[in-house]
What we know:
The chain is of the alpha/beta class. Helix content is about 35%, strand content about 20%. The protein has helices at about 1-10, 15-20, 50-60, 75-85, 110-125, 160-175, 180-190, 190-195, 200-210, 215-220, 225-235, 260-270, 280-285, 310-320, 340-350, 360-370, 400, 415-425, 455-460, 480-485, and strands at about 45, 65-70, 90, 105, 130, 145-150, 150-155, 245-250, 275, 295, 300, 305, 325-330, 355, 380-385, 405-410, 435-440, 445-450, 470-475, 495. The longest helix is centred in the middle third of the chain and has 14 residues, at about 160-175. It is globular, with a radius of gyration of 31 Å.
Amino acid sequence: MLERIQLQRLYGAKTGLDLVQSLPGVEREMEFFPIFLKLRQQPCLVVGGGEVALRKARLLLAAGARLQVVAPELAPELAQLASEGALTHLAARYAAEQLDGQRLVVVATDDRAVNHQVAADAEARGLLVNVVDDPAASRYISPAIIDRSPLMVAVASGGSVPVLARSIRARLESLIPAGYGRLARFGASFRDAVKARFPDVDARRRFWETVLEGPLGDAVMNGDEAAARAEMEARIAAGGADRVGAVYLVGAGPGNPDLLTFRALRLMQQADVVLYDKLVAPELLNLVRRDAERVYVGKARANHALPQDDINQLMVMLAKQGKRVLRLKGGDPFTFGRGGEEIATLAEQGVPFEVVPGITSASGAAAYAGIPLTHRDYAQSVTFVTGHKQDGTIQLDWPALTRPQQTVVVYMGVSTAAELCQAFIAHGRGAQTPAAAVEWATTERQRTVCGTLSTLPSLMASHGIASPALIIVGEVVELADKLAWYRRSENSAVTIQED
């Protein structure tokens, strides 16, 4: 009351809407007030028996409503729900008395006059009513919903452009994993205990941020709730000890941001520190949280920005400082990414870690170059190898790699392409065996050079193919010209065939 009097003194005696529009920072009124209704065991009515009514009925039943559907006839699935006792069917035409005792009304007939009559009758009784696809006649609208119960996210466009709301919902779906529901239930079970341990609101907020956004929260989302519960109890008893850090080895995929996993994207936006290397496309770094510290630890043949042991120790040090460390790797961490070496150090030092797989570069490069790695007419197996060992030598199992009807993908082979191709030929693979090099696969800069084992090195040199690039050897390369599909512009995704 006092606040209202003070506002009236400032802005004069105005209507509620005028008063709101006069407030600083308020440009216009809200068309709809966002609200969540508790409908469990509440009587609700759907007028209409078609497919649209079915969609609304499913939502109301999911909310636990006692549902009655009024319609002369029902769509088959609605009829099935009625026969199972999930809802009550009143086989009749609409009459105003059917609204008596209801909490909520949905109108979904194909008769505009009936729809508006139901809306008017509901208004007269003070009932919330929604006329599907008619926001002007509705007292409320149904938003696009992301259900991570008990966590719920609703998106609405005021009923004007429902497709836009659904599009935004689809984007949010990728950022809100199903595990958030488990996390919300987990947090709710400790709500009273945390409130009792931290009576100060700010201290309680800091505690929840530490728990929900750290390794403990990740454990819940990954299904390890028993360990998380024990850790939570210990943290509460300790009064919120210093935040425990963690390391996340995340596969960034071959380069195209659209090929990231949902989990990878979420961790990229939560990290405090990001350690990345040369194989991570610049477009991917743009998705990392803006205020995250970025540390380049790139490695190229015989030129390491940081030796591997130093990278391992840096991850340990940062995590023990309580930071969330993102080790961002091109492709997949466990496919020539030294992920095994790195997590071995983390395990020895007792640092929590998680490995998030990514699309390995071989799969991405082959798919975007139109080169199937296996094909029943060309290759029945595929082998991934690295072009050089740690000491720079080429020591491969050549008898295994030169078998017929096999595809071989060579990682880190650009600098040794000539020696590799000569070795394939020397160990029995025909000089005319098709071979290709794919540079910056899946990105706008992708180039594919196709030739044979005898010509590929010179083609790569003449066209300036450089790392990051993969070499693919095998008859499947013949399909590149026919199956190449990735061409976004004249200057991107170029496929260069041997003359």
